[in-house]
């Protein structure tokens, strides 16, 4: 690395080019970023960078960075000031809002935001009064989230990149990690070498990943489900399934067994093009080399039947007993560096942060966290119905704009689009989008670079381009694909006139006069909201998926001490914990003091069900994969997997568990006095027997945990839940401020 005269400082950051989360050591002299090294001690990249990561300094300093705000006028770009930009855009938006309601402005966010910025983006849309907010995850992995969350609870990768070193077999489908996630590939190749682990790569194309395979399976595009069913045919036919695991933890595998009987080698070959003998070999390899990991990426998800693909993969892993164990798992390689975090923080048209959904209780929960009156938030929306209804997905924002009918829904009448770190040219229906952009009243692009969005519209007026700083010019947390949070240290000051995204959000909030309400508990200095205050605020509210224990201090400590966290040494010395080794993956409950280790492996099955360490029981409803094979998109969502705690009953589509069960699981001792009093009130007595009879309704709508006390104390409730899932993801009891708080 080049050395400069004077003091050389190093700053630890995280690569922004994919979801592996490699540590970057930036060398800075006199405020100038002059060199870079890979994080030698990072458990993610173990001292390596790929070509993309090695170029982030050049990327951040790219010659084509936007230098100042600009406005398109009479076909010419004109330099303007920030004050003018915020004033003109703000005035137009308020006029549009007055004439057509808050939904007429669409806030399209980004997987390039830090967690804090993603959280503020969703919060910003809420204070503006719309659910017309979304980001890239809708296009890339929304089918994974829907498929996996509805299968066993969390819409995320179950294990970790570096956990693949524990794998005895690796099954890749729809993933070309060698090119898309190059540093993850080193863990894969290491497992192949050190464990002699077979690498099975299923892909219609022979990729660079396939070039490393011990078994390459070429199959027809879109026939993933038939392929998996064809593998399961051999597994059941030969008795290779994990019978004990299924008996203890999986309901309804019999119906899967019945379904796959139809997928004889001949039938499967007809649909997928893969010879039966090869699938027999694959099935035997998977059954005799355990634990095995299953990895997928966007080759699997960007299909009309993406949900079904991802669910079928989960079924295969459950049949093999590969979920909830080190070296196993359903492992989803995400795309952008913070697509997991932006999804977790609800930059989505159908949820508030933490997958809380949009029900009244969810709004009340977040209003409490934001220290804002619920009725104030309600007043920002057109009405309560609009507040609780889904917005428009990013893949459809333009349909309503192109529609000339008078009676079009108010929500669909988008008149102004803000593309904030999002270039939609990678989406399908580009020509439709271009036409819609021409019809908009106002188009705003916020990005470090002049993206295609800024020029693809064919307009000659009323387009604004605002220069945003990169993630290397600010600090904050970022969530890698494996659910691990890491802290990015600011490397250099924003270049030219660019501003960090959260400052731009603040300036707009100020213009719209909700800054005081929105940033009530977040310090703002020189128009820049404090990043740490933002983290601490979301720590208070993210109970559904356990973003409550990763305080800024703890995250910074983790980054500073990466080199001390060698997994074997830690285990031998009894601490700090595996979670630190992996970077505090969620769920990480509680507070900084509680030092919850995070959860490197979701659904830990190390304890027997009978000892209260149960993680899930799953029940399958079975779809008919021949429908997918025929390309019938109506086959979506036919496969449902449900799991409940031992002994719970299903009423009105929800599992119900009693206080006695809560007690047995060790949660009861953790209740606050108020919570205990609330249960006593419902039971009409403090007698343990009476309290034991209180039913707790567990609402898992959307596949996520919402725990509520029945009898009117429930802050949540969504009768529309299609699939109900209950999991015990973690042996540590839920801590303070749980969702079932009666306040
Ligand atoms: Fe960056 Fe991804 Fe390459 Fe790591 S693998 S250096 S995170 S682009």
From TrEMBL:
Keyword hit for Cell division: no
Cleavable signal peptide: none
Keywords for this protein: 4Fe-4S, Iron, Iron-sulfur, Metal-binding, Molybdenum, Oxidoreductase, Signal
Chain ranges of the 4Fe-4S Mo/W bis-MGD-type domain: 8-64
Cofactors demanded by this protein: [4Fe-4S] cluster; Mo-bis(molybdopterin guanine dinucleotide)
Cell location: Cell envelope
Similarity-based family: Belongs to the prokaryotic molybdopterin-containing oxidoreductase family.
Protein name per the record: Formate dehydrogenase major subunit
């Amino acid at each position: 690395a080049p050395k400069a005269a004077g003091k050389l400082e190093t700053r630890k950051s995280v690569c922004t080019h994919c979801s592996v989360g490699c540590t970057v050591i930036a060398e800075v002299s006199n405020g100038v970023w002059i060199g870079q090294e890979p994080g030698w001690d990072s458990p993610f990249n173990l001292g390596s960078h790929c070509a993309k990561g090695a170029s982030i300094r050049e990327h951040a300093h790219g010659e084509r960075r936007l230098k100042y705000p600009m406005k398109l006028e009479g076909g010419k770009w004109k330099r303007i000031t920030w004050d003018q930009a915020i004033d003109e855009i703000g005035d137009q938006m308020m006029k549009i809002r007055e004439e057509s309601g808050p939904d007429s402005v669409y806030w399209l966010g980004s997987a390039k935001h830090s967690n804090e910025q993603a959280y503020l983006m969703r919060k910003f849309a809420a204070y503006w009064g719309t659910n017309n907010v979304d980001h890239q995850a809708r296009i890339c992995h929304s089918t994974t989230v829907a498929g996996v969350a509805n299968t066993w609870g969390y819409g995320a990768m179950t294990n970790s990149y570096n956990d693949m070193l524990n794998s005895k077999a690796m099954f890749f489908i729809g993933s070309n990690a060698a090119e898309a996630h190059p540093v993850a590939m080193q863990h894969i190749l290491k497992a192949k070498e050190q464990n002699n682990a077979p690498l099975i790569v299923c892909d219609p194309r022979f990729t660079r990943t396939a070039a490393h395979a011990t078994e390459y399976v070429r199959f027809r595009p879109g026939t993933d489900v038939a392929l998996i069913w064809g593998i399961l045919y051999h597994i059941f036919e030969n008795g290779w399934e994990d019978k004990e695991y299924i008996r203890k933890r999986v309901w309804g595998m019999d119906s899967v067994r019945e379904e796959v009987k139809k997928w004889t080698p001949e039938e499967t070959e007809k649909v997928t093009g893969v010879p039966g003998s090869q699938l027999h070999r694959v099935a035997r390899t998977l059954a005799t080399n355990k634990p095995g990991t299953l990895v997928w990426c966007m080759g699997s998800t960007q299909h009309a039947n993406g949900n079904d693909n991802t669910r079928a993969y989960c079924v295969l892993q459950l049949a093999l007993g590969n979920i909830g164990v080190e070296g196993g798992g359903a492992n989803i390689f995400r795309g952008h560096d913070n697509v997991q975090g932006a999804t977790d923080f609800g930059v989505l048209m159908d949820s508030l942060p933490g997958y809380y959904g949009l029900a009244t209780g969810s709004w009340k929960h977040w209003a409490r966290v934001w220290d804002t009156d619920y009725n104030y938030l309600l007043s920002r929306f057109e009405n309560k119905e609009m507040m609780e209804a889904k917005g428009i997905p990013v893949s459809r924002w333009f349909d309503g704009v192109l529609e000339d009918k008078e009676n079009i829904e108010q929500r669909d009448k988008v008149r102004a689009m803000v593309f904030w770190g999002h270039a939609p040219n990678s989406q399908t229906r580009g020509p439709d989008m271009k036409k819609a952009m021409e019809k908009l009243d106002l188009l705003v692009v916020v990005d470090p670079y002049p993206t295609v969005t800024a020029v693809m519209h064919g307009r000659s007026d009323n387009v604004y381009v605002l220069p945003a700083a990169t993630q290397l010019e600010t600090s904050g947390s970022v969530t890698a694909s494996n659910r691990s949070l890491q802290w990015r240290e600011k490397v250099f000051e924003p270049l030219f006139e660019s501003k960090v995204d959260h400052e731009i959000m603040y300036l707009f909030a100020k213009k719209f006069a909700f800054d005081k309400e929105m940033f009530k508990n977040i310090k703002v200095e020189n128009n820049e909201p404090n990043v740490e205050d933002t983290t601490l605020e979301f720590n208070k509210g993210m109970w559904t998926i356990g973003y409550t224990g990763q305080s800024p201090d703890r995250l910074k400590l983790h980054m500073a001490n990466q080199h001390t966290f060698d997994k074997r040494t830690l285990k031998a010395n009894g601490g700090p914990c595996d979670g630190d080794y992996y970077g505090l993956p969620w769920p990480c409950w509680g507070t900084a003091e509680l030092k919850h280790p995070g959860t490197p492996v979701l659904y830990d099955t190390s304890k027997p069900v009978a000892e209260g360490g149960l993680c899930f029981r799953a029940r399958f409803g079975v779809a008919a994969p021949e429908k997918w094979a025929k390309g019938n998109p109506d086959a979506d969502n036919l496969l449902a997997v449900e799991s409940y705690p031992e002994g719970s009953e299903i009423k009105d589509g929800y599992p119900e568990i009693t206080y006695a069960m809560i007690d047995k699981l060790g949660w009861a001792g953790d209740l606050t006095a108020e919570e205990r009093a609330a249960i006593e009130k419902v039971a009409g007595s403090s007698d343990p027997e009476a309290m034991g009879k209180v039913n707790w309704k567990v609402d898992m709508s959307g596949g996520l945990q919402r725990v509520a006390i029945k009898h009117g104390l429930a802050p949540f409730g969504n009768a529309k839940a299609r699939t109900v899932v209950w999991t015990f993801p973690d042996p540590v009891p839920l801590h303070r401020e749980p969702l079932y708080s009666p306040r």
